[in-house]
Amino acid sequence: MTIRYHCRHCKTEIGSLPFESARETLRLLEELDRKEEERFLTVGKDGDLTVRCICEECEHTLQSNPDYYTFTKWIQ
Ligand SMILES: [Zn+2]
């Protein structure tokens, strides 16, 4: 089972981790409520977990466009 990280803005695959080495991520995900979970997580048919987060490039864009920040809630 694998956890894949996709940028939720440009859809780039940031990387993937074997499930076992992603304890920190899983711990954070447990703190999400049901609604947030649906927003940030997708469980694939093969059991893989896709986490929608933000890539470095979009983070940069975000930092140079602070106005945009007010429109979207970001997860990091
Ligand atoms: Zn991105």
Question: What is the topology?
Answer:
Blueprint: E1 2-7, E2 13-18, H1 23-30, H2 34-40, E3 41-43, E4 49-53, H3 56-64, H4 66-69
Parallel strand pairs: 1-4
Antiparallel strand pairs: 1-2, 3-4
Report on the structure:
With 76 residues, the chain is α+β, with helices and mostly antiparallel strands. It has one domain (2-69). 37% of the residues lie in helices and 26% in strands. It has helices at 23-30, 34-40, 56-64, 66-69, and strands spanning 2-7, 13-18, 41-43, 49-53. The protein has a 4-stranded mixed sheet with strand order 2-1-4-3. It is globular and about 35 Å long. It starts with a strand and ends in a 7-residue tail after the last helix. The model has no long low-confidence stretch (mean pLDDT 82). The chain binds zinc ion (ZN). The site of zinc ion has 7 residues, from helix 3.
Largest sheet: 4 strands, mixed
- Low-confidence residue ranges: none
β content, as a range?
25-35%
Q: What are the distinct ligands in this entry?
A: zinc ion
Order of helices and strands: EEHHEEHH
What topology, given as strand order, has the largest sheet? 2-1-4-3
What number of structural domains do the residues give?
1
What general form does the structure show? globular
The value of Rg in angstroms is: 13 Å
The helix fraction, in percent, is: 25-40%
Spatial separation of the terminal alpha carbons: 22 Å
Q: How many strands in all?
A: 4
Counted by DSSP, the helix tally is 4
Mean of residue pLDDT values:
82
